[in-house]
């Protein structure tokens, strides 16, 4: 058995579905069910006995310890985190608590469990920390992409909390010998992403006739990866990664935010045209910038490619097309997530993001 924390969220749910489609090994899914979680993400495996769901918080060491003792997993993959940069700017406390204290608590529970294992199981055990490229800070246009040796320079409360967690993971391996793996991945997109993030926010807002907010001038660059490629990389790192190592994950998909939103509008124009025949691009609005907005992320994933033979299977346009098609085919999912917590966030989000014309 493996344990997945945060398995009801975007990437965790994709990972579990992917895992169970390829392996007979059961998964214990440990999730606190925050606003970002959605049990509907796991509907396809509702009757699959290999998926055991437990509502628990990674900060609850006793609960995590009891689950580890009861299920005796060979690995723990930690996806659980507060993940949205804008929310971290407006409310950093929960990020420090969940992402930093949470990882500390999880590491301590995992260490105690691991120390009690028989020697052969101890050697085989892995704790995989799912982290982000944002820990490396911001690149200029002509800088080379981040490698695993790029110094950490996080700029947002979110990335600082993830960077701190990565350091704890490193220390637990170095000091106690806990066999850890850390992955630093670029921006994911795909099914099940909560529509506060740029890609699903653009799709959902476009279809609802709302403005499509682009921060600043839209020139900030992210390195986009289809979520299935991230999941495949995580499986490969778990299988063959060397304990104590970190691996960058990214698909060479650098695009400016304006390019991303324009592509989504073009795909929507094709797959679900507006009633008035105009392009969804007419809904684009340039709005006040995100404070401390990192200019550019780009990932060098040579280590993962060369050592572990991973490479992305999905091109950018193909992945975006599949993503748009998924949101169009899953209107019920979209409607269901746009209730209480989402509506409250969007109201403040739009209120804060007065258009630049309005500010002038
Ligand atoms: P998400 O916000 O969609 O899901 C997070 C999940 O974690 C939710 O199901 C939530 O209920 C759960 N969770 C939060 N706090 C918890 C806690 N204290 N205890 C137990 N469960 C808790 O996030 P995501 O986009 O799927 O990201 C998953 C992980 O991948 C995060 O660690 C994130 O930092 C990392 N990551 C994300 C991206 C991306 O582009 N989304 C890229 C690189 C790395
Ligand atoms: O790089 C990996 C990270 O990618 C993950 O660690 C984070 O969990 C994940 O949320 C994501 O962070 P970003 O801040 O890059 O993602 P977001 O979708 O919030 O924003 C992508 C870009 O789009 C960013 O430059 C800000 C911009 N943006 C975002 C929103 C929500 C807009 O222009 N308008 C918006 O309304």
UniProtKB/TrEMBL annotation:
Q: Output the NCBIfam families linked to this UniProt entry.
A: dTDP_gluc_dehyt (TIGR01181)
Record carries keyword DNA repair: no
Native source species: Noviherbaspirillum aridicola
- Statement: the UniProt record of this protein carries the keyword Chloroplast: no
Please write the reaction equations for the catalytic activity of this protein: dTDP-alpha-D-glucose = dTDP-4-dehydro-6-deoxy-alpha-D-glucose + H2O
EC assignment: 4.2.1.46
CDD domains, alphabetically?
A: dTDP_GD_SDR_e
Cofactor(s), by name? NAD(+)
Pfam families reported in the protein's UniProt record:
GDP_Man_Dehyd
Gene3D superfamilies from the xrefs?
NAD(P)-binding Rossmann-like Domain, UDP-galactose 4-epimerase, domain 1
Top-rank taxon = Bacteria
Indicate the family of this protein.
Answer: Belongs to the NAD(P)-dependent epimerase/dehydratase family. dTDP-glucose dehydratase subfamily.
Listed A to Z, the keywords are:
Lyase, NAD
Q: Which residues form the NAD(P)-binding domain?
A: 4-323
Q: What is this protein called?
A: dTDP-glucose 4,6-dehydratase
């Amino acid at each position: 058995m493996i344990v997945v924390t945060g398995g009801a969220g975007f990437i965790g749910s994709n990972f579990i579905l992917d895992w169970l489609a390829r392996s007979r090994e059961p998964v214990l899914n440990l999730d606190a069910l925050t606003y970002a979680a959605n049990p509907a993400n796991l509907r396809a495996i509702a009757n699959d006995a290999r998926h055991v769901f437990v509502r628990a918080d990674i900060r609850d060491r006793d609960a995590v310890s009891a689950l580890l003792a009861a299920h005796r997993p060979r690995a723990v993959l930690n996806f659980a985190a507060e993940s949205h940069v804008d929310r971290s700017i407006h409310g950093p406390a929960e990020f420090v608590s969940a992402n930093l204290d949470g990882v500390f608590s999880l590491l301590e529970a995992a260490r105690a469990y691991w120390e009690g294992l028989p020697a052969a199981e101890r050697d085989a055990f892995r704790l995989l920390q799912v982290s982000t490229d944002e820990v490396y800070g911001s690149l200029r246009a002509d800088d080379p992409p981040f490698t695993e040796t790029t110094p950490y320079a996080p700029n947002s409360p979110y990335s600082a909390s993830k960077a701190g967690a990565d350091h704890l993971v490193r220390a637990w391996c170095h000091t106690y010998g806990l066999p850890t793996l850390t992955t630093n991945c670029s921006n994911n997109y795909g099914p099940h992403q909560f529509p506060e993030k740029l890609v699903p926010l653009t799709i959902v807002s476009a279809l609802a006739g709302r403005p499509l907010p682009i921060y600043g001038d839209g020139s900030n660059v992210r390195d986009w990866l289809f979520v299935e490629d991230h999941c495949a990389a995580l499986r490969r790192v778990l299988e063959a990664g060397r304990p104590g190592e970190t691996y960058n994950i990214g698909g060479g998909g650098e695009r400016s935010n304006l390019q991303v939103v324009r592509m989504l509008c073009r795909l929507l124009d094709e797959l679900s045209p507006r009633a008035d025949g105009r392009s969804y691009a007419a809904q684009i609005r340039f709005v006040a910038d995100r404070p401390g907005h990192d200019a550019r992320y780009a990932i060098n994933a040579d280590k993962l490619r060369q050592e572990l033979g991973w490479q992305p299977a999905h091109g950018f346009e193909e992945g975006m097309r599949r993503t748009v098609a998924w949101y169009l085919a899953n209107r019920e999912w979209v409607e269901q997530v746009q209730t209480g917590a989402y509506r409250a966030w969007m109201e403040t989000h739009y209120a804060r993001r007065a258009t630049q014309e309005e500010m002038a």
